[in-house]
Design goal:
The protein is mainly α. The chain has a domain at 11-51. The chain is 48% helix and 0% strand. The protein contains two helices and no strands. It has helices at residues 14-32, 38-48. Helix 1 crosses helix 2. It is elongated and about 50 Å long. 10% of the residues are buried. The model has no long low-confidence stretch (mean pLDDT 88).
Length: 63
Amino acid sequence: MRMIPPDARGKLEPAEVFHEILVHRWYLSEKSDEEVGIFDTARDYIDTVLATKPNELITTADD
């Protein structure tokens, strides 16, 4: 999670980011016909996918 820039940390919950990075790793590995490292995957995901996502809307039970 430290790799995520501070301004992008509110886009998804940490568990969701981790899950999406794993899925992104699968896609990148399939595309390149070889396994892509998790750190390379995380950097690519942060730069190309997470950067385009809007911040999550957080509501409370009172809303």
